[in-house]
Amino acid sequence: MLYPSIDKLVDKVGSKYTLVTLASKRARQLREDNDMQVEKPFSKKFVGQSLEEIISDKLPYETPAVK
């Protein structure tokens, strides 16, 4: 079983497209800065670490308002 669950991540973020964008941008930041918000992550890869931050609410984001 994968951790974190993709279904739980999509429920938290609202859209699989938003999830991919958010995780990839955070993975790039982690690669450059190595500024982890989660202690002892399960994953050694940056994308996995960013997903762990999203599921644990350590990565704040806001959905832009539609005009």
TrEMBL record:
Reaction(s) the record says it catalyses: RNA(n) + a ribonucleoside 5'-triphosphate = RNA(n+1) + diphosphate
Keyword Transcription appears in the UniProt entry: yes
UniProt record, GO biological process: DNA-templated transcription
MF annotations from Gene Ontology: DNA binding; DNA-directed RNA polymerase activity
Broad enzyme group: transferase
EC number: 2.7.7.6
Keyword set, alphabetical order: DNA-directed RNA polymerase, Nucleotidyltransferase, Transcription, Transferase
GO cellular component labels: DNA-directed RNA polymerase complex
HAMAP family reported in the protein's UniProt record: RNApol_bact_RpoZ
Function: Promotes RNA polymerase assembly. Latches the N- and C-terminal regions of the beta' subunit thereby facilitating its interaction with the beta and alpha subunits.
Subunit relationships: The RNAP catalytic core consists of 2 alpha, 1 beta, 1 beta' and 1 omega subunit. When a sigma factor is associated with the core the holoenzyme is formed, which can initiate transcription.
Entry similarity comment: Belongs to the RNA polymerase subunit omega family.
Name assigned to this protein: DNA-directed RNA polymerase subunit omega
Organism, as annotated: Brevibacillus laterosporus
